[in-house]
Amino acid sequence: MRELQHATVDAPPASFDDFYVREFRGVLALVYALTGDRGTAEDIAQEAFLAAHRSWDRVATYGQPGSWVRKVAVNLSVSAFRRRMTESKAVQRMADRQSRAPELSTLTAEFWQEVRSLPRRQAQAVALFYLEDRPIAEIAAILGLAQGTVKRHLHEGRRTLAERLDLHEDAP
Amino acid sequence: MRLDERARAASEELRAALDALDADAPPIPVQGFHRDRGKRDRRRKVTAAAAAALIAVLAGALLAPTLRGGRTVPARPVPADGSILFGRWDARTQRSTWFTARPDGTHARSLGVVATCARWWPDGSKILITDDAARGPGHPLRPAVVGPDGSGLRALDATRDPALNLGCGDVSPDGRLLVLEGFNDRRPGVAGIYTVRASDGGALRRVTRAPRGGSDGNPVFSPDGSHVAFFRTRPGVTPQGAGALFVVAIDGSGLRRITPWGAAFAGPSWSPDGAWITFQQPYGQLDLVHPDGTGLRRVTLDIPAGAGAENPAWSPDGSWLVFTLTFDGHSNIVTVPADGGRPTRVTHDTGVDDQTPDWSAATG
């Protein structure tokens, strides 16, 4: 399953438009998981693909352009993550402002909320590991970290999630 | 239940929910991407031109390093006097607990106050906060005041309108007025900037009306108390959440936009001499602009690639800025000379998010 998905995701795209159509939804879901706001996620995904378009001659030659655009999107999400909480609005109002939110079960909404409450690198590693089903090496490439560092972030993030959600932690 | 099982179910459901949402409101198709790309590229070119102009200005500044009316900013250690107020954000509770520390990072202590916003009283004798704990059904958000050690909370709740929340804001230089953001998401017509009496929160007066679908927030007084600078949002501005800074007289007259739409992301801070306003750009940059909208320029910060600078505020003497530096997943409070450079940390904690600093001359 994982090999099939990634063989598809990272096969060389025929054109930027093909690349965009193939990858946009995945990048949008990843950024939504990290920001919790669909409008923000759309904007960041758009910015990330715009960056890819500007450098398409170069990006297209990369072995994994999908990883490249995710790296840009994840980095942009850091600012967005902070932006949401620094608007100095009353916190209750912030909750009200989330528009066009996907309808999630309580369990799923709680899970992603807990992911977003993790330290940022842990949240990114967890989202890429579960939502994108990425292996450690690819997560390390996307986040620009050593594989050992990703393992540590993933381990700490999973342990915290298991504790907070009262779940059993499996071996990664 | 096992974590992996729950995580994979949550992943599957999130992807399916986004797909279901797309049936009604599809994500940007590739044709839409190219249309939007044209707009964004044009905006980027405008920004590049502004940056080129900025470089020219900075080149001149190297020959005559002046800022704010010709005063040279000296290179010197971070001052030890004064007190920086900042919030420590808890993502689980969506609340900030407030702390104070000396500008050199010593004497850090928790005030035990939980609030959305907090700001020093001009003389440093008190702290204005949002009274989050008192909010509930029939009890809209109101300001409150606490002592500099966080004790003695007193509600400023003389305004009775149950449909109006009064949130974050500032205290006038003479300590007599508060300027606050008013809002009610169920009654968007009330959104705007308001003033109330600082002694009890009464004598409500409206200063601005936010645009339909937008908001007015982060109001701050000018040093002479005659004007208010604030951050306005309106629908259709990109990137998401960005807006523009405005200045208005305290009686509501002379409303003026002082930055381009989309150039600001969070609230202004007015320099003590009144000559400059600093604010946060989208994606973590700090800019300066004169209150009349001229002289827009970037604060050059020596920070790592990928780091973001947020929530700037001036030191009492106008020589320094304090702001939130976010890098590698954590946020800390830092200071930097007002003409830029390498920041110095005030807080050093890891695994926390310190934010929204405010700097008082009083040491407390």
Overall description:
With 172 residues, chain A is mainly alpha-helical. Helix content of chain A is 73%, strand content 0%. Chain A contains ten helices and no strands. In chain A, α3 packs across α5, α8 (120-130) crosses α9 (136-143) and α9 (136-143) crosses α10. The longest helix of chain A has 21 residues, at 65-85. The radius of gyration of chain A is 16 Å and the shape is globular. Chain B is α+β, with helices and mostly antiparallel strands. Chain B contains two helices and 24 strands. In chain B, the strands form six sheets. Chain B has a four-stranded antiparallel β-sheet, with no helix packed on it. Chain B has a four-stranded antiparallel β-sheet with strand order 4-5-6-7, with no helix packed on it. In chain B, a hairpin with a 5-residue loop joins β20 and β21. The longest helix of chain B is centred in the N-terminal third of the chain and has 34 residues, at 30-63. The radius of gyration of chain B is 21 Å and the shape is globular. The termini of chain B are far apart. Classes of the chains: A mainly alpha (172), B alpha+beta (364). At the A-B interface, α2, α3, α5, α6 and α7 of A face α1, α2, β8, β12 and β20 of B.
Poorly predicted regions of chain A = 1-10, 84-99
Radius of gyration of chain A: 16 Å
Number of strands of chain B: 24
Q: Which two chains form the greatest contact, residue counts included?
A: A-B, 72 and 73 residues
Q: What structural class do you assign from the helix and strand content of chain A?
A: mainly alpha
Strand order of the largest sheet of chain B: 3-2-1-24
Name the poorly predicted regions of chain B. Answer: 45-75
Averaged pLDDT of chain A: 77
Separate helix tally of chain B: 2
Helix content of chain A: over 70%
Order of helices and strands of chain A: HHHHHHHHHH
Q: Largest beta sheet of chain A, briefly?
A: none
N to C succession of SSEs of chain B: HHEEEEEEEEEEEEEEEEEEEEEEEE
- How far apart, in Å, are the first and last alpha carbons of chain A? 17 Å
Structural class of chain B: alpha+beta
